[in-house]
Amino acid sequence: LEQAEVNLLNERIRVCKDRFARHPDQTEILITLGIALRQSKRFDEAVDVLRTASKDLMHRSRASLQMGMCYQAMGKPLDALSQFR
After folding, report:
1. Which of 75, 68, 18 is nearest to 46 (CA)?
2. CA distance linking residue 28 with residue 63, whole number of Å
3. Which partner from 13, 47, 61, 66 sits 20 to 30 angstroms from 82, CA to CA?
């Protein structure tokens, strides 16, 4: 079961990256990618992706929430608090 979950997350990451490469104007894909990376414990990579997504005002709040969750998991409470605000 654990291996199936890991495989599913890796597939989500691959699909999101491929889709964003084809449609870079669809920044909402970055939110899904960031969530999948966070769930895979690839926090630094997730923060980078979510930082890009947060440049779009429509996605800023969702991206900030996910970045805050990443920072919290990384043991950076002040950075997390900044994102949660």
Report:
1. 68
2. 10
3. 13
d(CA 64, CA 1): 31
Closest CA to 52 of 63, 42, 68: 63
pLDDT in the model for residue 62: 95
pTM, whole model, 2 decimals? 0.89
Tell me how long the chain is. Answer: 85
- What sign results for the dihedral spanned by CA atoms 71, 9, 1, 65? positive
DSSP states along 13-72 = HHHHHHHHHH-TT-THHHHHHHHHHHHTT-HHHHHHHHHHHTTSTTTHHHHHHHHHHHHH
> For the segment 26-82, what is each residue's pLDDT rounded down to a tens digit?
999 999 999 999 999 999 999 999 999 999 999 999 999 999 999 999 999 999 999
